[in-house]
Amino acid sequence: MNKSVIMFFAVAGELAGSFAPMLFGNNDIFGVWGILGGLIGGITGIWVGVVVSKRYL
After folding, report:
1. 51 near 19, Cβ under 8 Å?
2. Which of 10, 17, 24, 40 could bond 45 through an S-S bridge, CB–CB 3.0 to 4.6 Å?
């Protein structure tokens, strides 16, 4: 497994997850929903990074 690929997807997922509540009208990025979305997005990004690094690299 390539660590840089996993970190790339983790950071991308965390950023996407923390900005997702803004689509629903919550403009506080450091609020509970922004942090929770970042956590879920980061975990999902790590999973996608592991799958990509095992399958394609």
Report:
1. no
2. 10
Cα gap 43→35, rounded to integer Å: 12
For 12, 21, 27, the CA distances from 15, given in Å and listed in that order, are 5, 11, 14
Q: Token pair for residue 34?
A: 């922004």
Give SS3 for 44.
helix
The position carrying tokens 């790339």 is 8
- pTM for this model (two decimals): 0.88
Query: For the segment 16-46, what is each residue's pLDDT rounded down to a tens digit?
Result: 999 999 898 888 878 899 999 999 999 999 9
